[in-house]
Amino acid sequence: MCLAVPMEVTAINEKVADVEIGGVTRQVRLDLIDAAPAIGDFVIVHAGFAIRRLDREDALETIKLFQEGLNLELI
């Protein structure tokens, strides 16, 4: 099973973005995303690629569900 995670964009350098969730920072490619993100936007990340930009409220609700279901501290 694959899991795509909503992460917040903290920096953008051409086709690579720095994203963060729960203190974990990663670099992801922006080649596949549906709409170009801006710093502060949330994106769905899967296998090193941002694949979809998310509304902030939807992203925070998804993160909350992960926290409750998996007993994690993400935000």
What does this entry look like structurally?
With 75 residues, the protein is an alpha+beta fold. Helices cover 20% and strands 43% of the residues. The chain contains 1 helix and 5 strands; from the N terminus they run E-E-E-E-E-H. It has one helix at residues 56-70; strands at residues 5-13, 16-21, 24-29, 42-46, 49-54. The chain has a 5-stranded antiparallel sheet with strand order 3-2-1-4-5, with helices on one face. Strand 1 and strand 2 form a beta hairpin. The longest helix is centred in the last third of the chain and has 15 residues, at 56-70.
Spatial ordering of strands, largest sheet: 3-2-1-4-5
* Whole-angstrom Rg: 12 Å
Mean pLDDT figure? 88
Largest sheet: 5 strands, antiparallel
Please count the helical segments.
1
CATH class categorisation = Mainly Beta
- How many domains? The number is 1
* Poorly predicted spans: none
Distance between the termini: 24 Å
Number of strands: 5
Q: Share of helix among residues?
A: 10-25%
Beta-strand content estimate? 35-45%
Instruction: Sum up the overall morphology in one term.
Output: globular
Q: Which class do the helix and strand fractions yield?
A: alpha+beta
